[in-house]
Amino acid sequence: MSESERTPDGPRADAGARRPAGGPRSSPRGIEPPVTELSAPFWDATRDERFLLPWSTAREVPMWFPREVDPADPGQPIEWREASGEGTVYAVSVHHKPGPGRDPADGPYAVALVDLAEGVRMMANVVGCPPDEVAVGAAVRLVWQPLSDGRNLPQFTPV
Amino acid sequence: MTARTLRGAAALVGVADAASPTGELDSHGRALEAAMVHEALADAGLTLDDVDGVAYAGMAGGFAEYLGVRPTYLDGTMVGGSSYELHVEHAAAAIAAGLCDVVVGVYASTPRSDRRRPNAMPRGMPPGPNPAFEWELPYGLRLPMGAYALAASRHMAVYGTTSEQLAQIAVDTRRWASLNPRARFQDPITVDDVLASPMIASPLHLLDCCLVTDGAGAFVLTSAERAADLRRPPVYVLGAATGGTHQAITEMPDLTVTGGAVSGPAAFAMAGVKHDDVDLLMAYDSFTITALLHLEDLGFCPKGEGGAFVEDGKLGPGGALPMNTNGGGLSYTHPGMYGMFLLVEAVRQLRGEAGDRQIDRHDVAVAHGSGGVLSTMGTVVLGTEATL
Question: What value, to the nearest 5°, has the Cα angle with vertex B349 and ends B302 and B234?
């Protein structure tokens, strides 16, 4: 079977809807992110499906990737603040050959860079629609994908 | 300090490279590296006794030790595929400053034959903090092609660039490869062939992607003064500059603009050359989109017009802007960090030693390396004695 003959449905189309409270967690696929010292607050909040961004208190701007300190003013603490979860697709690639940790049988999936309303850009999968339908400029919103340890991975779905 | 400090201060006086149509080499590791250094020194008419500087994308001291060289200059700059352009820039500056006299740079990698070699060095991520583990890899990003695919996606959305236009770059590069008997792939391809090849990471097809082959190379750089007495016509470093923007693709400020927009103008200004002066462009083609971004960021065409610029086949044999005449990373060889081969081919063309693929006018060449995922650009402008 050639790559292009695979089903257009992404491996995580089922993650497009919010997980019902107390419902079953889907089995994890792919690589689960490690927790580092600087990102622990982010991951802890995802257990309650809260989406936090680290803000520079000195400059009043969010930062991504997370930093332990504000590199422009390392003496100032950073502050984790809840984000809207609204974004726009900046760029997208449908991966027909899977990346590390992905099962080829799951088929193509959309890897996107999403510009958040707060002004930072993060990577995520766009799920809940056929991956080929994800377009640059499309409005997306946050959805959660359960991880095996109770954390949730931020993902996005078309609005 | 003027903007043209390095112009003509140092010259590439010896080069070597190894590649094979099979994609594999018989030798590997330190032995292959040492063979390349030996060949490049012989090309220059120098010996290891002349070497007082070593450039190596990694632990330079370990390689100097292996050679038995006790250097006064070491450069371990490791930024991926453009490391060798940065090595030339730094070494030219060091020579101009009197820190050293003869610098050798080397690269060897045999990912293809390593598959059969159980004791090969394990490949993997470098140590140290790597946010990509946490914020990119969980999303199944396939590196490196996924990152370049995102850049291509953005370029298409903003500027209307098409898959056909990107494919033309692969087609013209293959036309050059058909003139290089050592190229991995030499049979002509068409735009339709590229579009019909399997989609790897949209919008990039298999034939938009570089090869995985064994390969190796080396250069010798010395002062202009010393270069004048050596075996081969010197190829002078007229200008060199670096432009870094990010490490992980998520952090790239604008996926349609690379650090080449900084390093290119700076290197051209130092060299005092205009685009019309450039006889040969060796622009790192890890993917077709990579080469297209280089054309724009180096200023051969305005931003966003790269697709239309390449459409007429001007990059191929007989075209107005010969690019990647060895067949490039797309068709000649790509062992992982291809920047060394840009320099080697530029030197061979400027000396008039390129055989069937020799270009007619050959006084100015640009070697433009790309490291990481469009992360660190290194531009080196090279010229013959006539350009001094």
Answer: 110
